[in-house]
Amino acid sequence: MREVMAKIAIVGAGQAGLHLGIGLLLSGHQVTMLSNRTGEQIAAGTVISSQSMYGMALGLERELGIDYWQDSAPQYAGAQMRVADSDGNVMLFWQGAMDEPGQSIDQRVKMPVWIDRFIELGGDFRLVDAGIAELEELAGSHDLTVIASGKGEIGQLFTRNPDRSPFTQPQRVLALTYVNRFRPRPGIPAICININPGIGEFVSFPGLTLSGACEIFTIEAVPGGPMDVWDDVKTPEEHLKVSEHLLRTFFPLEAERIDGHLELTDDKAVLRGRITPTTKYPVATLPSGAQVFGLADVVCLNDPLTGQGSNNASKGAKIYLDAINARGDAPFDEAWMNAVFEEYWDYARYPVAYTNQTLGQPPEHMLRILKTAESDAGLAHLMANSFNDPKSIAPWYYDAAAAHEFLDGRTPVAA
Fold first, then answer.
1. Of the candidates 229, 235, 241, which has an alpha carbon nearest to the alpha carbon of residue 267?
2. Full strand arrangement of the beta sheet holding 7-11
3. What are the φ/ψ torsions at residue 362 (nearest 5 degrees)?
4. In terms of pTM, does the model score above 0.90?
5. What CATH fold (topology level) applies to the domain 7-67+105-166+277-358?
6. CA–CA distances in Å: residue 68 to residues 14, 48, 123
7. How confident is the model at residue 324 (pLDDT cuts 50, 70, 90)?
8. Domain 76-104+169-274 has what CATH class?
9. In this predicted model, what pLDDT tens digit does every residue of 271-280 receive, in sequence order?
10. Residue 210 burial (CB < 10 Å; 0-12/13-18/19+)?
11. What is the pLDDT, as a whole number, of residue 3?
12. Are the beta carbons of 270 and 219 closer than 8 angstroms?
C-alpha cells in the first residue's frame, strides 16, 4: 500500500507531458520526467508543430499558472473557411468570431520555460533517450509510468485500435512554415482554412516565435496530387520557395497577402512530414509484464488540418491529472488506465471525427452546413467556436439525419 501522494514517471517533455508533470507537482506528487533534449536544445532546434490553441486548452494552462504568454503573444479571435479553385473562383466562404481568442506559441519558446518551471517545482528532469530498458526501470520504481512521447520501439508498444482508426496511411503530405512578410488577413485576426478541392489545403494563423510575432502556415497536399512535390526539397530555402510557389499557384486569394516575397523567421522554421491519423489502445505491456499508460499523440494522433493536436494534448493531460489526484492509494492498474482513457475518448472522439471528416470526401450534410454558414451568422459563429470544442457541434455536424433536422429547424441569423 503506497501513500496517497504517488511517484509518477513521464516520458516526453512536450505539451502533454509537461502540462501533466507540472500539474502533478503542484498537487504534491513526486514526478520524474525523461526527455531526449534539454530546454536549450529544444530552443535551438527545428520547429516542432503549429500548435494552434483555443480558449478551453489555454484556460487549462491558466489554471496551472503556466500561461506566460497570455498578454504578449498575438491572439486571433475568429475563424474563416474558404473553398476555392486555383483560379480564385470561390465556391464557399464563411467567417465567424470566437468567444475566446486563440494563440500559437512556438514550442521552442514554450517548452524550455515549462521545463524550467517543472524543475523549479522539484521535478526530477532527466536527459535520457528512453528505450525499453529505461521504461522497465521507471515502471519498477514508480507507481505509474505515462508515455507522452515515443517513436521507434516505444511507439510500437502501443497497438492500433482498428475500430477507431479509419485510415491506414497518411491522408496528406504536410509542410509547416513560420514566416514574415505575410500580411494579416482583412478584419480580425483568425485561423484561416482554405481548401482547393482534390488538391489540398492551406491553413494559417498568427503566432509567436523566437524572433517575435509571425504567421504560421501549413500546406496540406493530397498524396499524389499536384502539390505533392516535396520529396526533393532539402534546404529551408527550397522549402520556402516551393511553399510560395504553391501558395501563388493553388491559393491565389491568400497569396495576395504576400508582401513581396515570403521570408522565414529563422533557418529552422520549417518542418515536413506525413501523419497517419491513428487511435491506439492506451495500455502497453513491457517484456517484464509491467504496464505503461499512453497519453496524447502516442495513442490518439490527429492530422493537423483542424488544429486539434495541442488542444487534445492539454485536455488529455487535464483528465489524466484529475484521475490521478482522485485515485487515493488505489493502484494505477490496467482497468483504471482503460477507464481514464475512455473518459478522455468521450471527448477526443469528436476532434478525431472533426478532422477525419474534413480529410475525406466531405459528406453531403457537412457541405450543407458549411454552405448555410455563408448566410447564417449564427451558424458561422457556432462553426468558428467548434475549433475550441468540436463536441459543441454534436450530433448535427457528424450525423446526416441530425444535421438535416438541425438545419430545417433553424431560423437563420443575418450577417
1. 235
2. 124-127, 30-35, 7-11, 144-147, 291-294, 283-285
3. -60, 130
4. yes
5. FAD/NAD(P)-binding domain (3.50.50)
6. 16, 19, 19
7. very high
8. alpha beta
9. 999 999 999 9
10. middle
11. 60
12. no
